[in-house]
Amino acid sequence: MTPESASSDFAGALLAGFVSAGVRDVVLAPGSRSQALALAAAALEAAGSIRLRVRIDERVAGFVALGLAVETQTPVLIITTSGTAVANLHPAVLEAHHSGVALIVLSSDRPEELRGIGSNQTTHQPGIFGAAVHTVLDVAAPTAEDGEIESATAIARDAVLAAQVGPVQVNLAFREPLSSAVFEPAEITAAPLEVASTGSATEISVRKSTVVVAGHGAGEQAEQAARLLGAPLFAEVSSGSHFGPNLSVAWRELMTQPGFGEAIERVVVFGHPTLSREVPALIQRAGIETIVVRTPGVEDYNPGHAIAQFVDGWSVVEPVEASREARAWVGRWVAASRVLLETHDAPDITIATADDPKSQAAFGRAVLAGLRAPVTRRTLVEAVWRMTWPHDRLVLGASRLIREADRVVPGKKIRVHANRGLAGIDGTIGTGVGIGLALEGAGVTRVLLGDLAALHDAGSLLFGAGEPRPRMQVIVGNDEGGTLFDSLEVAATASPEAFERVLLTPQRVNLEQLAAAYGWVYKKVTNRGELDEALTPTEATTLIEVPLRR
Ligand SMILES: Cc1ncc(C[n+]2csc(CCOP(=O)(O)OP(=O)(O)O)c2C)c(N)n1
Ligand SMILES: [Mg+2]
Predict the structure, then answer these.
(1) Which atom, in ligand 1's list, is nearest to the CA of 477?
(2) pTM exceeds 0.85 for this model
(3) Distance from the CA of 265 to the CA of which of 105, 340, 462, 541 falls in 20 to 30 A?
C-alpha cells in the first residue's frame, strides 16, 4: 500500500478551499510533480464539486482557463507540473494581466533541498511571470504538521481575493511520496467570497461636444454613460458597448469632416482602446480634455501622458436627456454614420413587392447573384455578426477581420470577446473553447480569426478524452498569410520578396486535413449563400474555411 502522503492531504485541502471560496472551473495539464493536485481535482470532479478540463499543452490550458474566467467572471485554477510547463502559461497570464482576468496558477515545484542543485525539471519558478502577476505565494512542501490543512484553506482564500484584479501564482513545493492511493473529498459548501468594491464614483458633468470612447473591457457602462452625457459613442466592436442609440460606427471616417472631429472638446474613455490610431491622436490633440475611467488591476490608458483626469468610478451630474443641443450633436454623428454604412449592394425591395413578372424576375436574379457573390472580409464579418444572437458568443482574433468588423458592423447587444490585452495572435481558439465550455450549450460560440492565428493555436482543437465539447464554430478567413502587414508602411518600403518571406509568411496548410485530424467537422465556403448555411448552428464542433483574396 502507498504510504500516507502529506502532499495529497495538503493538495486535497487546498482545492477544497478553492471550491469553498467559489471556484468551479479547473484546467490541468499532466505531470508527475503535480500529481497530488491532479488526483485531488479528479476526485472533486467525480464528486461534482468542480468542472475539470484536461489539456496536454499548458499554453492551450492557459487560454482555455482565460476563456472560462472571461465568461464566468470567476477565478479559474490552472494546475501544472514544474519546469517549462509553467513557462507555457506565460502568454495567457500576460493577456490576463493586461485585461484584469482572474487566473490562479498552481505551479508545482521541487522542495527547497532540491532547488539550485541541477535537479531534473527544476528551475526558479516563484516569480517566473514577472510583473504579470501581482501576487506570488511560494508555499513550502507540506510535512503533515499540525495546522497545515488550515493553512491550505487560508492560501486558497488569499489567492481568490488577490485574483479579483488579475492573475496570481501559487507555487507549491511537493516532497515524495508525491501522492497517496486514496483521497476522499469531504462534502464542501461553496460560499463565494464577498469582495468589497473599491473606488468611489466621481461625478462627470454634462458638457457640450463630448464623445465617449469604449475600448476593450469597457462593458455596457460606456453605452449608458454616452446616453446620460448626451455624447456620441465610439465603441470598439469587442468593447461590450457596441450598441445603443448613441453609437456612431463610422466615426473614423467622420473625424475629418467639417463639424465633426474638429468640434470635439472632451473625451471620456472606458476600457482600453486598441483598434484605431484615431483615438490616441484625438486625445493628444491640443485643447482636448480627456477623462479615463479606470479598469481595476489594469494599467492606466494614458496616450502621450495627455490624460487630464483618472476616475475609479463615475456618475453623471444632471443627465442630459432633454437638451436640444445634445440631441443635435449626437444625432449628427449617428445619422452621418448610418449614411456612410448603408450597403449599396442589397437587392431593391420595392421591385420585390411589385406585381409584374418582369420586376419579380429581376428581384429573383438579384437575390441569386447575392447568394453566389464571393465572400469578402466585409460580407464575412457582416454575416457572422448577423448570425450571432444574445445567447451566442463571438470571439475575434487579432487580424484584419476584427478591424473590418470594428468599422462596419451595426450596433447589436451581443457578447463579443477579443484578447486585446496584448492583441496576440496566440490562444484565440483556446479562449473560444473556454468561453464555449462555460456556456454549457446555451448558445453557439463562434471564433472568427485569420489563418496564421488559427495555425498558431491549432493545438486548441484538441479536447480532453471523454470531455463534453462546446457548441462551436471556428471560422478561418484564409488569405494564406498575415495580410494585416499589407496595410503597414513596411509593405511599401521593403522588397516584395523580403516582405513575403519575413512578414507575410505565406502558408498552404490543408485545413480540411487539420480539422479531420482533430475530429472537427470541416466546411469550405466559397460564396455568401454557402456562408449563411455554414454558419447555421449545429451540435458538432465545426471548422469553416473561408478563402479570402489578399
Ligand atoms: C503571438 C503573436 N505573434 C505575432 C504577432 C504579430 N502579428 C500580428 S497580426 C499577425 C498576422 C496575422 O495573420 P492572420 O491571422 O492570417 O490574419 P490576417 O492579418 O491575414 O487577417 C502577426 C504575426 C502577434 N500579434 N501575436
Ligand atoms: Mg491571414
Answers:
(1) 21
(2) yes
(3) 340
